[in-house]
Each structure stands twice: as structure tokens, then as C-alpha cells.
Amino acid sequence: MHIAQALKWMDTLECRVSELYDMFSADYADDEEVSTIFCRLCVDEKCHQDIVQYERRLVSQNPKHFDNDSEVDVVKIQEAIESIEQLMASEDALPVKEAVAYSIKLELDTVECYYKTAIQLANPSTAKLINGLGMADREHMDMLMSLSTTRGWR
């Protein structure tokens, strides 16, 4: 798979995660701490999407620098997108504890996927960018785990 295709899927994932966190922020508006955390995560994910879109533009403008196909497996990314879309289509809001647990798992899966993707990419600048996104997702996971621990959900 060409890096442009992998970045397209990553762009979609960042968009869906942002939308999910925005939904969670609204769903739990009566809990200021939880709503604020999800709002911050939403904004961060929009920034991540901007970074991926920037990298997509670089790839399209400089195809010779990114002409190697890689063995990037986007199945986990596609599965995450599908899971998020199903959750968002549901008419019932998750209990807050389940939303936080779902988000922790989502961030953990994204970290793992981005790390594997970064390792497999031939272009060092792209690999560095994707690895940086994975590190940011680790920070999100830590924030959510801290909330879960503070609330006694873990």
C-alpha cells in the first residue's frame, strides 16, 4: 500500500475520533470534568488530523520522495473507524464509565497501530510524524486512565 493511501485512512480515523470525543463531551456535559477532558481530546484529535492532512499534501506534492510502497496494514485503522461509526450511530449514550473505557482501548489500539506503521515506512520524516501522533495518543490514554483511576473505575 502506498503511503498516501495509509495517510488517507489515518486522516479518516483522526476525524472520527475527534467527532466521537465531541459527542462524548456533549453527552456528559453535566459532568464538567469529564466533558472538559473529552473536549480537550476532541481539539487534540483535530490538530492530529491537520498534521496528517499536511503530510498528505507533502506526499502528493513530492511523489518521488514517497514512491515506495510499504507493507502498512490498515486493517486495525479500518476496524477502529467502523467501531466508532457504529457507536456514534447508536441512539443510546454509553454510561460515562464505559465511554472512558472505550476511549482508553481506542487510544491504546491507535498507539499500537501508529507505532507499527511508523516502523514500516521508508520515508523517515513520515515515520517520525506518525510516531509523534502515537506518542500524543499515549498522552490521551494516560489522561483517560487517570480519570478512570480517580473515579474508582479501574
What does this structure look like?
By secondary structure, the chain is an all-alpha fold. It has a single domain (3-150), classed as Ferritin, core subunit, four-helix bundle (Ferritin). The chain is 79% helix and 0% strand. The protein has helices spanning 3-27, 32-61, 75-89, 96-120, 124-150. Helix 1 runs antiparallel to helix 2 and helix 2 runs antiparallel to helix 5. The model has no long low-confidence stretch (mean pLDDT 87).
Q: Which SSEs are present, and which pair or pack?
A:
Elements: H1 3-27, H2 32-61, H3 75-89, H4 96-120, H5 124-150
Helix pairs in contact: 1-2, 1-3, 2-5, 4-5
Question: What's a concise summary of this model?
Answer:
The protein is mainly alpha-helical. Helices cover 79% and strands 0% of the residues.
pLDDT < 50 runs, ≥5 residues: none
Number of strands: 0
CATH superfamily: Ferritin, core subunit, four-helix bundle
Under CATH at level 1, the class stands as Mainly Alpha
Structural class by helix and strand composition: mainly alpha
Give the CATH architecture: Up-down Bundle
Q: What is the tally of helical segments?
A: 5
How large is the share of residues in beta strands? under 5%
What's the rounded overall pLDDT mean? 87
How can the largest sheet be summarized? none
For this structure, the CATH topology is Ferritin
Distance between the termini: 39 Å
Order of helices and strands: HHHHH
Q: What is the total number of structural domains? A: 1
Calculate Rg over CA atoms. 16 Å
Question: What level of helicity do the residues show?
Answer: over 70%
- What coarse outline follows from CA principal-axis ratios? elongated
What oligomerization state is this entry in?
Answer: single chain
